[in-house]
Design goal:
Length: 498
Amino acid sequence: MRKLLSLIAASAILAGSAVMASAADIKAKGTFNFGFGLYDGINFTKHDNEEHFYARQMLRTYIDIIVSESLKGVAAFEIGEVDWGAGGGATWGAPGVGRGAGGAMGADGVSVEVKHLYIDWLVPNTDLQVRMGIQPFANPRAVMRADYKDGGAIVDDDMAGILLSYNFNENIGANLGWFRPWDGGIGATPSTDWPRSGDNDEIDVFFLGLPIEVKDVFSFTPYGMFATVGDNLGPDSWGNDWITTGYVGNAESWLSANGSLGGDGHAWWAGFAFDLSYLDPFVAAVDFTYGSYSADDRAPSRFTSNPGFGNQTDRDGWIVTAKLGYKLDYFTPALFGWYGSGADLDGGKGFDGLIPSLAPYWGMTSYGFAGVNLTDGGEAIIGASPAGTWGIGVALEDIRLIDNLTSYLRLAYYRGTSDAEAYNKASREAGGLDAFREYEVLDTSDWAFEVNLDNVINIYDNLDLLVDLAYIRLDVAEASSSFEKNAWKGFVGFQYSF
């Protein structure tokens, strides 16, 4: 009997040890965000029945499942943005399903979204790190606002794929990735969902970056990206353009850069991000990217019917952004600027000159461009990419004159770089709307002035009060009578971080 009990006890100990050996350390972090804002003119249109007040909230939570230093998984989920009073509710209206659902009376919306879902692991006996799954990805960039850490001018979003990272030594590394942002044939029935075959309807993106860093001296990351677009993502024989009808996106998404492109093509980008830290407390950074897209499919029908737009299947352009500053004890004065090549419509060249993009989220300002706080309703009302514009601005960053208050002041002036005369002629042929409202392209005769004052007030270690104020004056040549030149916002938000 004793031998039997001893055997049972030993087995239990071994089983417990096995469970303990395989147990994972689970850590959760995230943010609750609440935002309340007043806005006017965000569509630059008079009497457009836009909402002037927003109250909304969002939850983002990141769960790390850590087995060891060599293996972990990350799952990130998002609920929102949920607009108060909208999105359906169990009491008033059927409960909503999808993004932002459940803000109406009774709540009960079904709106949990997958943001990240990937694993990080090291190849055994090497320093090669593998990240596999739905993950955040942005093109390398060095020019960023002090209060805003994103800002990819070509891509800055979540995508499914595999990214390999390796450090040759303490100064030189390499990143190699393959991503699939779109596969239209998965789960679709071509005969009913669209009249083209479900084959060859994928978009694949390949990335190579070579980060080089000498601590306290400089960092320099040259990179390249290549993308293939299936021939069944272009216009079909009926004249439908699947690139802009929801299957791939609209004017701010895949390979668009203002105006859609045909399928059966390829794109490539080459650029670098450079940050000079040797001159600290001076701040100096430069980003540059050149990109090109070429396709065999014909142009979308809505453009081919207008001779002024020419051939839409080819496009190339470039973007450069720079920033100079000097760190003082209580704030950092900075000068920033950018130039994005514009559309050259002379000779029927269409939108050639505008750099193609994947999913840009560039934000050197916090109202006209994409540098906004979570739950802020005023987002990128000029655009999420600097393509087709040039600008210059001054800023006071990290203003810390009062305890627990950090402020950021920016003033920016920018203009369009697209051909003015040819563009206005083409936009009139396309329906008589002004250039900005129809295709969100600023030409050389259009200009804007923007001022931002963004504040972060620390209430507790984990709770911040956000107060943002912004104003834009936009002057567009040959604008329609409904065009509104002024846009402003006043935003108050709360962010609880855990």
